[in-house]
Design goal:
Length: 213
């Protein structure tokens, strides 16, 4: 056998050995994962319909609800929370938001009792325990609903914490404010954000995901 042929055979043999080693390594890697190479699956956050808020801890607060009970956000640990900002004399957006939240909770069925809906007043002067109770009744919001009221000094820090802007009521009683619906998980983390264009099916979808976590 010439040296040239021997050299070629040695190169071919080395190449075959490399292929064999690569094949054995790939098989070992597959077996270690219990099957074919695993593609990472979507997390629950990526499946949420609202804007992702990256599980930022939701700022806590303490206010009184429509019955005069002291309510903190921390009170609802263990439940998903829908946090929104409304005022009872609102002529358009707030009633629509309330109706869509009602539809959302209806679609959850018995699971609705495992969710809290919290509305923070945007009108310190116009919102009272009486008007808040009336608002909840008109929009058929059940015992999962907490309408939080207070003075301007009590409410303003909460608005600021959630980046909600409000202007004082006009002579006609209209309060111009930014709309925001925060979806907060059982651990008290902000998970998703909607504006007033959300649909009940979108919100219900996110709540079902958080209920299952």
């Amino acid at each position: 056998m010439s040296w040239r042929l021997a050299s070629r055979l040695s190169v071919i043999t080395l190449a075959l050995l490399v292929v064999l080693v690569v094949a054995l390594f790939s098989k070992s890697k597959i077996n270690s994962t219990g099957g074919a190479a695993i593609t990472p699956t979507s997390t629950s956050t990526s499946r949420l319909q609202g804007t992702n808020l990256n599980s930022t801890p939701a700022p806590d607060f303490l206010l009184k609800d429509q019955y005069g009970n002291a309510i903190s956000l921390a009170k609802f640990k263990g439940k998903p929370v829908v946090l929104t900002f409304l005022y009872t004399h609102c002529p358009d957006v707030c009633p629509l938001t309330a109706e869509k939240i009602h539809s959302t909770m209806q679609s959850l069925g018995s699971s609705a009792q495992n969710v809290a809906v919290v509305a923070v007043s945007m009108d310190p002067k116009g919102d009272t325990t009486a008007t808040a109770q009336h608002f909840a009744s008109v929009h058929k919001l059940g015992n999962y609903f907490f309408y939080l009221i207070g003075t301007h000094n009590e409410l303003a820090p909460v608005w600021a914490s959630y980046s909600v802007d409000a202007q004082a009521a006009t002579s006609s009683g209209v309060v111009n404010h930014s709309s925001a619906i925060y979806v907060i998980d059982k651990q008290g983390n902000e998970r998703a954000l909607f504006d007033n264009s959300f649909s009940p099916s979108q919100l219900a979808s996110d709540l079902k995901i958080l209920l299952g976590e």
